[in-house]
Design brief:
It is a single chain. This protein is an alpha/beta fold. It is about 35% helix and about 10% strand. The protein is globular and about 70 Å long. It starts with a strand and ends in a 7-residue tail after the last strand.
């Protein structure tokens, strides 16, 4: 995996490089000062040329070319030159659009926040794919997802695995390229029962002209008709000016030519954020295994009464994912969400499980004491007993539209949680 660290100050860049090495990763490439300023100048020049004449667009050879992971310090105000002061937020979208770099991480835009209690996504407003702070890079679990390697036990469940992110982004781009003009709900296999569980925010986030119910007007479209190309026109995370997006979208090269992949990589980043903020965050339409067990503990079978068994399922990477095999085949296999490129771990369509009569009968036979008092702690990616006097799990209410906003953390010393008003204390 090619990693490129970009900073305007050499000492700060060296710290980032060292933290990546401390996490057990290979030495990344790095660029700073005049060299970085020259690369960005050329990037903006290429962007202007491409916007003036889409037919001239091409992924030119640059330091960003074929990079898997670009890590940008948010404060780039010390770069040489007389142009505007730069931040990662001001250039992340241009790197995504005008180079073929796969995944962009912004550093230190929110220095006072380590764990997001609002939407369980980090900073969903960031134009980067992920917003972190420099110390997070030292955590081996950020890269691998290995809970056992987490520094001080800190491993937010919402963190992507950086080692896997570029490969997943390639698969996402391929998916969008293939389905650019297909309705999103259809391409994802979201039947009406799943669509109906999407929040108003989830529906509106795809396009401002989407309508959920009733007859569409001349200026609106049903949510199940919104295409990936519509998202490209609607979202400004990568290209901030709508007229530019419309010009690119209408260009002949955006149909069968080289711009089709440009549209796809922009949309892939937007849909990836949409999944994290509006689908896997709320756990409403789709739910993953730890949140499945919080609703239906009996999927552990006879092991449900043993607290240690709950965490073992989080290590399983293939079906039946550590769950009771017969129950998985009878109930979960048919509800499995098939498009793994959009989710970090196996997910299941909640309406299919909710409407399963046998599962509901099983739920009604559950007796108090059939399983331990464990809860899933989002900041540790672990099940922990409510009675654990050391960890002391705390409930919080995330800022989701839906029925499952109540979650838990086991607060870790030195970790900054925000906003603290979400905590039930």
């Amino acid at each position: 995996m090619r990693v490129l660290v970009c900073d305007d100050i050499a000492d700060r860049q060296d710290e980032v490089v060292q933290r990546i090495l401390d996490a057990g990763q290979p030495r990344p490439e790095a660029i700073t000062g005049d060299a970085l300023s020259a690369e960005l100048t050329q990037l903006f020049k290429s962007a202007r040329q491409s916007l003036a004449d889409p037919k001239s667009f091409a992924d030119r050879d640059s330091r960003f070319h074929d990079v898997d992971l670009v890590i940008l310090d948010n404060n780039l105000t010390h770069l040489p030159g007389d142009g505007p002061l730069l931040t990662a937020e001001s250039i992340a979208g241009y790197i995504r659009t005008f180079t073929n770099a796969k995944y962009v991480v912004s550093l230190n835009a929110n220095l006072d926040v380590d764990f997001d209690l609002r939407f369980l996504v980090g900073d969903f407003s960031s134009r980067a794919d992920l917003a972190l702070n420099t110390p997070h890079l030292t955590n081996p679990s950020l890269w691998s997802g290995n809970v056992a390697a987490a520094v001080n036990g800190f491993l937010p469940w919402y963190w992507p695995r950086l080692e896997e992110s570029p490969g997943r982004r390639r698969a996402q781009i391929e998916f969008v390229t293939k389905h650019l003009d297909d309705p999103i709900m259809q391409a994802l296999g979201f039947e009406s029962s799943v669509v109906n569980l999407l929040s108003l925010h989830a529906k509106g986030a795809l396009s401002p002209v989407a309508v959920a119910d009733g007859e569409p007007s001349a200026n609106s479209r049903p949510i199940d008709k919104i295409t990936f190309r519509d998202v490209f026109i609607a979202k400004d995370r990568s290209l901030p000016i709508k007229a530019d997006r419309e010009m690119f979208s209408k260009s002949e090269e955006a149909n069968d030519g080289h711009l089709r992949e440009v549209l796809a990589r922009v949309v892939a980043a937007d849909i990836d954020m949409w999944f994290r903020r509006d689908i896997t965050g709320p756990q409403e339409a789709l739910l993953d295994i730890p949140h499945l067990l919080m609703r239906f503990p009996f999927f552990l079978g006879e092991r449900v009464s043993v607290a240690e068994e709950w965490n073992k399922v989080l290590l399983a990477g293939t079906a039946p994912y550590g769950l009771e095999e017969q129950l998985y085949e009878q109930h979960l296999a048919k509800a499995r969400f098939e498009h793994d490129e959009w989710v970090k771990t196996a997910c299941f369509r909640w309406p299919v499980l909710r409407d399963d009569e046998d599962l509901n009968k099983r739920f009604l036979t559950i007796k108090e004491g059939d399983w331990p008092d464990v809860v899933f702690c989002e900041d540790r990616s672990q099940f922990i007993a409510l009675s654990d006097q050391k960890a002391k799990p705390v409930e919080f209410t995330a800022e989701f539209e839906g029925s499952w906003a109540r979650r838990y953390i086991a607060r870790i010393d030195g970790v900054r949680y925000a906003p603290l008003t979400r905590l039930a204390e």
